[in-house]
Amino acid sequence: MQKYQKLFNLLNIWAQELTHKMTTENILKRRPPTERPAPNVEKRPARQRPLHEAAVDRLRDMIIEGDLAVGERLHEFNLAEALNVSRTPVREAVKLLATEGLVELLPGRGARVAALSAKTISELLEVIGGIERHACELAAERMTSRELARLQRMHERMALHHQAGNLHEYFKLNNEIHVAIVAAAKNAILEATHASLILKARRGRHAALASQARWTEAMAEHDLLMKAFAERDGRKAGEIMFQHDLRTGEVVRQMLKASEGH
Predict the structure, then answer these.
(1) Which of 90, 106, 74, 125 is nearest to 247 (CA)?
(2) Which residue intervals of the chain bear CATH 1.10.10.10?
(3) Alpha-carbon radius of gyration of the chain
């Protein structure tokens, strides 16, 4: 009897220990994991754009889009107030835009918006047309499928701006497309040469789009250009682009000639 009593006592003790162990494990399972504090990673502030760069872009747009008329004097104080910057960024912007042919510096008398020269615009677009024709020929062969798809999406957005009559956004995206095509040619010298000239031609290219007929014509030319790229036909794409640029130069020349006759 004592033998069975001892065995019963051992079993009872073992059962109590097992129950205690299971209870402890259940409590631990229900306990939420200890939250560790997030590492103290210092966030670097986003690089702020220099004020003169923002002033250059805004002032360039004002001249290209006609907010500042040809011959209008550029008063630093008034422009600084309009652009919400100090006079120093405005002064630097005016000097830079003079190198682009948009501003004429008057020694000792400030600066004014430069006149458009039909000869200069025509010559610029002849050169740019040659560069962009060669860029199209190379890009049709060298651009990746991803680059082509991105170019197509940009083109579709530009078409929507055209349909909406939003010239500002259309022209901005149009410029980005021309730059992207040259970049897709993957020729650093070609890209650098193009970048040095495209800014100087922006006012003439924008002026040509003041004609609704030319704007519609230009959009149709871009449609044909994208079809040529989709077919990877570099020669065809290059010729379309070359004629596109020459046509723009011709339209600007005719507009300036007509304005001189009044």
Answers:
(1) 125
(2) 51-113
(3) 34
